[in-house]
Design goal:
With 331 residues, the protein is mainly alpha-helical. It has ten helices and two strands; from the N terminus they run αααααβααααβα.
């Protein structure tokens, strides 16, 4: 029987994207993941969480929103449609990574990981709707989206480096400090979802169950972790200067300072203005930017060699038979 090629292999035989194209495709998934975070926040902040009353349809009798559902139905359904746009960008990255020569399985695996996280989160979002916006499930829904953003950032980073074993470019204690910053930022994000679950923006105009904790106390804990993250960031800044780190990590920590400054200003504005919806939306954007910068900083403290050049894999395969014959000839 003749060997049949799968569609990705057929594309790889006819299209050879550049390393720059693959990296830009990976960056596009990062951007779309941030868009999903912001639009998901818009659904909650406009009280459109139950704009579509069921899932996977919008209503028991209609796949799309009806005129009677008003703007809330359109907002909720529009956010659902963005999932397909996100999948299209992820699909482009998977195809580009597969078609690139030499083939890098680490990139395609990260692409498929993005796809399955999106699928899982879509089902989870349906459960959120079916349970009437349970605050614990809503919090997990946001954290799954943050997990998607994490995988997208990893893919973006890997698309710009080689496949060698990672080597630290700064002393190990400095790298450990950077991962401590990652953990502190992750804890900050988790506590932020609890703040949301106890706060006034429940996601729907009707009475929705909230997490039974004191909102001001949880907010204070959230602020405490902000100070921890800021302190660790400042410590990393001076540590990188002390060890004379390369320019890339220094630029990464400055980008983190910019994201933290933006998030700090937005946070104080929303607190003193009584939590206006628009400012909270900006705060969610800032949360994504801080997380991206923290991950990028930690990943910049090691290197994995240059991106493999086009045709490197084929060249290695061509040399393999010669390498096998050389010992026999010498004997």
């Amino acid at each position: 029987m003749p060997n049949t090629l799968n569609p990705l292999e057929l594309i790889a035989r006819r299209w050879q994207p550049s390393a720059r194209f693959v990296r830009r495709a990976a960056l596009a998934t990062v951007v779309m993941a941030v868009v999903i975070v912001v639009t998901g926040g818009a659904v909650r902040l406009t009280q459109s969480g139950l704009g579509c009353s069921t899932w996977p349809k919008c209503t028991p009798d209609s796949l799309t929103p009806t005129a009677a559902m008003g703007i809330n139905g359109l907002i909720e359904f529009g956010n659902r449609l963005l999932t397909y746009v996100l999948c299209a960008f992820i699909g482009l990255f998977i195809v580009a990574a597969r078609a690139r020569s030499p083939r890098r399985r680490s990139l395609t695996r990260l692409g498929w990981a993005q796809f399955w996280v999106v699928m899982g989160n879509a089902v989870w979002g349906g459960i959120v709707v079916l349970t009437g916006l349970n605050p614990y499930l809503v919090a997990a829904h946001f954290l799954l989206t943050t997990g998607l953003l994490t995988v997208c950032v990893l893919a973006w980073q890997r698309a710009g480096e080689g496949d060698e074993e990672p080597r630290g470019i700064v002393p190990r204690p400095v790298r450990q400090l950077s991962w401590l910053l990652v953990l502190a930022t992750a804890a900050l994000t988790v506590i932020g979802t609890v703040v949301t679950g106890t706060g006034p923006h429940a996601g729907d105009a009707r009475k929705v169950h909230r997490i039974p904790l004191n909102w001001q106390e949880i907010t204070q804990l959230h602020v405490d972790f902000v100070y921890i993250v800021v302190g660790l960031s400042v410590a990393l800044f001076f540590t990188l200067r002390a060890v004379k780190a390369p320019p890339a990590p220094r630029r990464a920590v400055l980008a983190l300072f910019a994201a933290i400054a933006f998030q700090g200003v937005v946070g104080y504005v929303q607190y003193f203005m009584g939590l206006p919806a628009l400012v909270i939306g900006l705060h969610m954007l800032g949360s994504s930017l801080v997380w991206i910068c923290v991950l990028r900083l930690a990943l910049s403290l090691r290197e994995r060699g240059p991106v493999p050049e086009e045709g490197a894999g084929a060249a290695a395969d061509d040399k393999a038979p010669e390498a096998q014959l050389a010992p026999a000839t010498s004997r």
